[in-house]
Amino acid sequence: MLIKKNDLTFLDIPLHALPRRKFRSKYYKFIHPNLDNIEEHLELNIVRKGRVRFIKYLVQNESKKGAFTYNYFRLRELELDAANQAQGRTKKVIRDHIAAEAFRRLVENS
Known about the structure:
alpha+beta, two-stranded antiparallel sheet, 30% helix, flat
């Protein structure tokens, strides 16, 4: 996934202030798959009928980690992609790597 890259905004405290034992759930704003129980924060609902699939993520109990994860990892885009495919829409792919990267930057900065 190309979302995090060098970004550190998902940390709850600045990198330089992290203690020596930094692999703890409390230091991450998002749901960490190795440290958190995902179902406590997000519920994944999938309905499938033949080739048609709908996806919906629901934040559980107003979880801050659930909401942050949903927004940070752009899970709404996955929901929309599934809905578009269910309606027969195809996803347009830019095959030229340089053009695709330029388009991605343009979308992120808008």
